[in-house]
Known about the structure:
The structure is a homodimer of 338-residue chains.
Chain A: H1 8-15, H2 19-26, H3 34-47, H4 53-60, E1 65-70, H5 76-91, E2 95-100, H6 105-117, E3 122-126, H7 141-147, E4 152-155, E5 164-169, H8 171-184, E6 190-194, H9 199-214, E7 221-223, H10 228-236, E8 244-247, H11 250-262, E9 272-276, H12 280-284, E10 290-293, H13 296-312, E11 321-324, E12 327-329
Parallel strand pairs in A: 1-2, 1-3, 3-4, 4-5, 5-11, 6-7, 6-8, 8-9, 9-10
Antiparallel strand pairs in A: 10-12
Helix pairs in contact in A: 1-2, 1-3, 2-3, 5-13, 8-9, 10-11
Chain A binds a DNA duplex (16 and 16 nucleotides) through helix 2 and helix 4.
Amino acid sequence: MKKEVPNIYDIAEFANVSIATVSRVVNGSDKVSEATRKKVLKVIEKFGYTPNVFAQGLGLKTMHTIGIIVPTLADDYMATAVDYLEKGLKRHGYDCILSCSGFELTEKQSKCDMLLSKHVDSLILVGSTYAGNGVDASATDYIREAAKKVPVFIINGNISGENVYATVCEDEAVVCDVTGKMIERGRKNIWFLTDSRSYSSNNKKKGYEKAVERAGLASNVIYVENDIHSVKEQLSGLKDKPDGIIAANDKIAVGAVKYAVSAGLKIPDEIEIVGYNNSILAMSSTPEISSIDNHTAEVCHDTVERIMHNLNDDGYKPSNKITISCNLVCRETTKVSD
Amino acid sequence: MKKEVPNIYDIAEFANVSIATVSRVVNGSDKVSEATRKKVLKVIEKFGYTPNVFAQGLGLKTMHTIGIIVPTLADDYMATAVDYLEKGLKRHGYDCILSCSGFELTEKQSKCDMLLSKHVDSLILVGSTYAGNGVDASATDYIREAAKKVPVFIINGNISGENVYATVCEDEAVVCDVTGKMIERGRKNIWFLTDSRSYSSNNKKKGYEKAVERAGLASNVIYVENDIHSVKEQLSGLKDKPDGIIAANDKIAVGAVKYAVSAGLKIPDEIEIVGYNNSILAMSSTPEISSIDNHTAEVCHDTVERIMHNLNDDGYKPSNKITISCNLVCRETTKVSD
DNA sequence: TTGTATGCGTTATCAG
DNA sequence: CTGATAACGCATACAA
C-alpha cells in the first residue's frame, strides 16, 4: 500500500527528457532552455519529486549536515546556544545532527566519532568542557584528530590545532572588571564560586584572582556542586561570611542568593552577588540577580558565519580564534558604582 | 594531503576476499568462517574502516536517524525533553536530526518536510503546540500527511490519525485536583494564567474550570505573555486581587510570584501559587514555587520505547495514545492540606 | 541545449 | 562458506 517515491528516472521519462536534464533543472543550472525547464518543473511538481539525499550524498560526499555536540540540553546556556546554532545553520541550508555527550571524555570521544561516521560537514562543540582544563592536553587530542577530517568549531572554549576554530568570551577581563568595581565599592571579602575546572571557569577565576590580588585582598575560590541547594548548604556550613560573591553561572548564583537570604544578609547592602550567563534564572530569582551576559547570540552567529565561509571556501579565511566581549547586566544584587 | 577514506573494496582486496564477505563480517552474518572473519576484522581494524552511511542509506533506505522538531530550545521543558529523547534514541543506535520550528504553522510544515526529505525513520514533535488548538483540524493536516511516510510521535499533545502516536499528560485531572485542594483550603478567587491555546493549555484550563465550577466559584482565565515581567505588570494593572493562581508554566508562575510580592500579598497565607513543569525556575524563585511535575523523563522514555517497537516491527503494537500522570511538587507557595 | 555513460559504496540475490 | 553482480538514485564529464 506504500506509494513508491518517484526518482529522477520517473521524472525524466514523464517529461520526455534525460535524467541529466532533470538534474540540471533541479540544481538550477543555467544551461537549460526555458521551455524544457518549465516542462520538467511541472512534472516534478506533479509527482512531488525530491532528490534522494542518500544518492546525492554518495556522489557529493556531503549531506549538508553539521554535527553539534553538547554535554547536556538541561542547561539554559547550552540549550539556548544550540537553538541559535540550529536556526543559523538552517538558514544556510544545513541540518543539524545533535548529540548530547555528557561530561565524560570517553563519551565525548565516542559521540564525536559517531558524528564523523555520519559524514557531517563540520563539527560544533558547545561548551567550555570540550576544551579540557588546559593542563592535560591529551584530553583534547580526539578533537584535533577529528579536525583532520572536518573543521571543528568550539563554542566558549579554546583549543589550538589545525582546522579547529574557537569562539571564546572575554571571561577573564569582565570578571576582573566586575570584581574590581565591587572592591571599589568597599567589599573586602569577595568569594568566587564555580563548579568546574573548565577552560572558561578557569578564565573567570583568573579574572577574579587578578582583581583581588591587585587590591591586596585575600582570594577565596570555592568549588561547589552545580545545584542550588547544595550551594546554599555548603555556604551555610562555613563560619566566615562573604560580602561579595562572583558565581560562575546563574544557578550557583541563585544558590548564593538563597544562602544570603537564609543567613540574614541584606542584599545588596551587606552582600553583593553576581551571576553568569544572564539567563532566565537570574530574572527568576528574588531579588533579581545581576549577571554577566556572554552574548550567546553573537557567539553563535559568528560561529555559523565562520563555518559557512570555511565550507564555501570563499576567499575569506576565518581566524582560528575570535573573542567576544561580555558585560554585566545590573539588577538587584549589586549596587551601582559612583 | 587528505587521506582517502578506505572503502569496502580496499578491505576486500587487502584481506583477499570479496566485498560480499567483508559486508557479511561487518554486518555480523553468521555465515562466515571464523578464520576469514578474524582475517577481515584485522584488516578493518588496521585501516580504520567504517561503512559509508550514504551508500548504506541508498540501499537500505534508512540511515537510522529520527527527526526531532521542537518549537524552541530556549525553554527548559522542551530542551530537557530533547535531551532525554536524544539520549534514549542514541542508546538504541539512532541519531537525531534536530529542527527548531518556532510556533508558526508554515515553519512547522516546512521543517517537517525538510526532515522527511532527509528520510528520517520517524518524526517526534515535542510540545503541545503541534497539536493545534483542537478547533482548526486543518492546522494538523501536515502531520497526518507526514504520517503517511513515517510514524509520527507527538510529545504532550494529542492528534488522531493513522500512524501518529501521542503521549500526553493528565493535565486536566491534575489541575482539577490541585485547584480543588486549594478551594478546600478556603480560596475563593483562584485565577488561571496561560500564554497559549494549545492542546495542553486547554486541558489545564478545563481542569481548572471544572474544579472552580464544581465549587460554585467564578472562573477567571487570564491570557498572558510568556514573560516574567509582562505577567507581573499585567496582574499589577488589575484592580481585583486573587487569593490563588494556577499558572500554565513555571515562568508565568515566577511572574505571578513577583506580582504577589510587589503587591504586598503574603505567600502562601494571602495567596497561593502553583506553577507547571517543575523546572529549575520553580526552585530559583524565592519563595520556591510549588509546581506540577509532568514527568518528562517518563514521557520521553515511553516515546522512545514505542518508536523502537514500531521501527523494529516486533510483535508489540504500540497504542496510539498513552497518558502519563502528573503530580504536584509542594514547595513554599502553597499550604499543605490537612 | 541535451543525452549517454560512469562512478559513488553498500547490501542482497544468486550461483558456485 | 564465498564470490560475482545487480540494484539503489544522483551528479557530472564527455559526446553530440
